[in-house]
Amino acid sequence: MTESHARGRRQPPIWLWVVAGVLLVGVATTIGLLLGNRGGGPVPEAEVVTLPVPTPTVSPIARDTGTPFYDALPSTVLAFALSGTGQDEGMVNDGALEAYRLQYTDGSATLTLLAGQWPTTDEAAAEYQTLAQQLAVEASASAQPGAEPSAGSTASPAGPEEGAVLADGQEVGRFTYAPHADGSATIVWSNQSAVLRLDGPSDVLRDVYAAFPL
């Protein structure tokens, strides 16, 4: 066997080069797809949609200037505007220095607010506990088997919800929230020496309470 013949036998056939090239292209494509699916590229940020804060479509009634506590009670809260004011004798009889009954409307729904100022935070806390216990009894009574929801109501009442009232991260009082079988709800809360009770439709009451400045 000559040397040139021996060298010729060591050369791989052309078809083998073709097959190797096809395999390399396939491997490179697979690697590229795997790397692309690893999420190495930038992830688009989720769009944050901020809804506008509701504002009243009706004008609040005019009211005279009163005590600092009375003046601190808002004329508008979200879509609700003040529609009526008056004294509340019930809270005064319970020991409040001053107390008021205010009504708010958005043109269709109505909210009723009772707000009183007590001499001390301890007396306010005691009044809050009385109102919260009354609210728990009301909620329990409306949840009894014999208490039928009113027409149009789709939700059964749940038990009262309790929690802390916070201001600048500090607890300044407590709240109790209870829905009713007729689709309304009540929330009572204390804020230092003030005690308030708000009644209205359950689908708006939480938002109004959260936005209430007192």
Overview of the molecule:
This is DUF4367 domain-containing protein. Residues 139-163 are annotated as: Disordered. The chain crosses the membrane at residues 14-35. A hairpin with a 2-residue loop joins strand 5 and strand 6 (170-179). 22% of the residues are buried. Residues 1-10, 15-19 and 146-156 have low confidence and may be disordered. The protein has helices at residues 3-10, 14-36, 68-72, 89-93, 121-142, 202-211; strands at 76-77, 80-87, 98-105, 110-117, 161-167, 170-179, 184-191, 194-201. The chain is globular. It folds into 2 domains: 3-36; 68-146 and 155-211, 3-Layer(aba) Sandwich (Protein Transport Mog1p, Chain A). The chain has an 8-stranded antiparallel beta sheet, sandwiched between helices. 34% of the residues lie in helices and 28% in strands. The protein is built from 6 helices and 8 strands. It is α+β, with helices and mostly antiparallel strands and 214 residues long.
